[in-house]
Task: inverse folding
């Protein structure tokens, strides 16, 4: 029997609606409007689309949006100056440096300049450390979105075997840390993992973030597992079998027959990232206010 399809678009809309209500209540209580500043270096069309989506989501949630654009040839110091200015701007609760930055810039070094209290992507060393230590902090948006999808799918995490394919700082590592914090038994796989299919076939919860179209085939999946597909791979519409040409890391048609629940691509994890970013921006504003009152 085909598994339940986890509808990321619907869940993201619910999260965004909830954030909008909390933003309104926060404004009434404190007289403050949370604000998100995005920094885009260069004119990469895909990045420009992502930034536009974030700006629109802010407006919908009742938050202020600040749109910083720098030319593709901007120097490290120019980007650093922009970050320093936003760190000191009281109207800005959260700062997001759109990645990837042009090749001559060091993305992680620049991200590390963001005030950890405004690091709504949760990627600074301070927030990565707080996550590992199990302390309050801002968590990376995509793994946080996956946790929300798992909650909606009624996935039992306590004691479950969870396998994450991918160990990037952006997704795989924080995903594994969040699952561990939720008391799952976590295995993190990567390009040197031996018998990837065999390791994955043990998973009650299987999360794929590799960036290779349909690498996860039915033999990777235990009957009744919950499968989350983070991968976004661009093929021709004919190869993909859909108009967008977008496919995930999971062979959806085959895996759907074995999984209890599964996310589609598109329409699964993708929409959750912006929704969780809105939540993080509100959380940052709340934490900053608490710190100011201390
Ligand atoms: P990444 O930095 O390229 O990491 C890919 C990971 O996959 C690495 O850890 C790599 O292992 C591992 N890997 C590569 N080939 C493998 C193989 N044959 N077997 C097992 N593991 C393999 O990518 P990322 O930033 O984590 O993103 C992964 C995918 O998720 C991409 O498709 C990306 O577009 C998507 N993504 C989507 C969202 C969203 O929906 N909002 C957000 C983030 C990422 P090594 O470490 O050994 O190289």
Result:
């Amino acid at each position: 029997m085909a598994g339940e399809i986890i509808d990321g678009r619907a869940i993201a809309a619910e999260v965004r609606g909830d954030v909008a209500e909390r933003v309104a209540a926060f404004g009434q209580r404190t007289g403050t409007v949370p604000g998100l500043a995005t920094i885009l270096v260069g004119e990469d069309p895909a990045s420009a689309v992502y930034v536009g989506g974030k700006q629109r989501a802010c407006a919908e949630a009742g938050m202020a949006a600040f749109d910083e654009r720098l030319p593709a040839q901007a120097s490290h110091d120019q980007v650093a100056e922009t970050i320093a200015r936003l760190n000191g701007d009281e109207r800005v609760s959260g700062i997001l440096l759109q990645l990837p930055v042009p090749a001559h810039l060091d993305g992680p070094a620049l991200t590390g300049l963001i005030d950890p209290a405004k690091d709504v992507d949760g990627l600074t060393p301070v927030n990565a450390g707080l996550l590992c230590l199990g302390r309050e902090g801002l968590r990376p948006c995509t793994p946080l979105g996956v946790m929300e999808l798992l909650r909606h799918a009624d996935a039992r995490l306590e004691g479950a075997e969870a396998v994450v394919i991918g160990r990037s700082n952006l997704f795989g590592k924080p995903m594994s840390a969040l699952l561990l914090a939720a008391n799952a038994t976590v295995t993190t796989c990567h390009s040197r993992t031996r018998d990837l299919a065999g390791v994955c076939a043990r998973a009650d919860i299987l999360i794929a973030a590799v960036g290779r179209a349909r690498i996860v085939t039915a033999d990777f999946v235990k009957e009744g597992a919950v499968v989350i597909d983070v991968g976004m791979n661009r093929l021709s519409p004919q190869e993909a079998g859909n108009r967008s040409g977008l496919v995930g890391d999971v062979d959806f048609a085959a895996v759907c027959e074995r999984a209890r629940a599964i996310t589609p691509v598109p329409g699964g994890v993708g929409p959750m990232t912006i929704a969780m970013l809105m939540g993080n921006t509100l959380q940052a504003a709340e934490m900053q206010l608490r710190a100011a009152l201390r």
Notes: The radius of gyration is 19 Å.
